[in-house]
Structure formats: C-alpha cells, structure tokens
Amino acid sequence: MLQAAFWGAFAGSSILLGAILGMFKQLSKLTTGLIMSFGTGVLIGAASFELLIESVSKGGLLPTTIGFLSGSIIFTVSELIISHRGGHERKRSNKRKGKSSGLAILIGTIIDAIPESVIIGVSLLEHGTVSYLMVIAVFISNFPEGLSSTIGLKRDGYQNKTLLMMWSIIVLLASISSLLGYLFLNNASPNVTAFISSFAAGGIIAMIITTMVPEAFEDGGPIVGFISSLGLVCSLILSHI
Length: 241
Description:
Blueprint: H1 2-24, H2 29-59, H3 61-83, H4 102-127, H5 132-155, H6 160-184, H7 190-220, H8 224-239
Helix pairs in contact: 1-4, 1-5, 1-6, 2-3, 2-5, 2-7, 2-8, 3-4, 3-7, 4-5, 4-6, 4-7
Membrane topology: Multi-pass membrane protein
Transmembrane segments: 6-24, 31-49, 61-82, 103-125, 163-185, 191-213, 220-238
Family: Belongs to the ZIP transporter (TC 2.A.5) family.
C-alpha cells in the first residue's frame, strides 16, 4: 500500500523539480523541446505497450475500446473547458497567460496527473510490483510541464511560494491517486481493471497530441520526431525487461 503512494509521489515529483529549476534558471527552448519530445515517445509507448495491450489481455477488446475512447473524450471535453481560461498553455513558457489562468493551469495539470497516478497503483495489483515503465514515462513527461509552466507563470507575477504550493499539491494528489487506485481496485474484476487502464491510456494519448506534441515541435523543430522515436524504443525495451 505504501509502495503505491511512494511511486505515485516519485513519478509526480519531477513536476516539482522542473518548477524549482524554472524558478532559478531558464533552459533553452531547444532543450525543453527535446526533453518533452522524448517524454512524448516514452508516454506513447507506456500507453500502448503497458496499458492497452495489458487491457486487451485482461479484459478483452470491448472494455478496452470503450475505456480508451471514454478517456479520450473526457480529457478532450475537460481541455476545451479549461482552454478558455488559459489552462491549455500549462506546458508553455513562451506565451502570455495572465494571472487569471493560474487556477486553470493547476486544474489542467491535475487532469493530466490523476489517471497516470491511478494506473501506477493498479500496476502493483496486476504485477505484484510497480510498472517501472509507467513511472519513468510519467516522471519524464512531468518535468518539462513543471518547468515551462513555472517560467510562464513567473513572468506573469506569481511568487515562488505560490508556485511551490501549486506544484506540491500536484505531487500530493499524484501520491493519493496512486494509493486510491491500489486500494479501491484491489478486488476489481478484469473487465473493470481493463476499462480503467484503457481509460487512462485514452486520456494520456489525447493529452500528448493536444499539448505535448505541438509544444515539442515548436521548441525543438523537426528533430523532435527522431527524439520521440527514441523515447518509444526505450518504452519497448523497458516493457520487455
């Protein structure tokens, strides 16, 4: 049980590390773009190799399909709502956000973090040990989000104390979500587990295409395609270790 909370917090902690770096040092757009593109490849691999394939194996094609499309729809609808308040730019450091977007950015980040963290807890139930692929994927993808959002919010007048509180809340929620995923899905049927895993995969894929890919290409240029491919290959290798 404590393992679930620990690994959820660990995966989420990179958003705080990225935020702290963003408070005191601004990385180049190219560096941020390359980090984000690698994280994109790893996350796509984790969603595909770890979540979808496992879901089909455990619960069948129908629960997996319904869960995946549901996750994608829920994320897309949520993204449409928070986009009007600036939350869609939570991964961006080069856009003006305005102080009113701070809460939307926080909510948008929570929408990203919770499904990922729940699956980390579920992986303990399915395998007896945490999915290191999922932990690594979430850790890598969270870092540029904390970094770029913090840089942008600092430009709009947010104080370091406020920013630390915001991202600490995300880490805490990631830990709690992973723990709850472990506790409440302990006796769940294979169909339910398959639905939840694929639901998270749908949300993750929608998030990647909506927020990470455009930002990575804008900052890193055409090379990000190759870097994303490297991330995907790393996911493939990790899924077979």
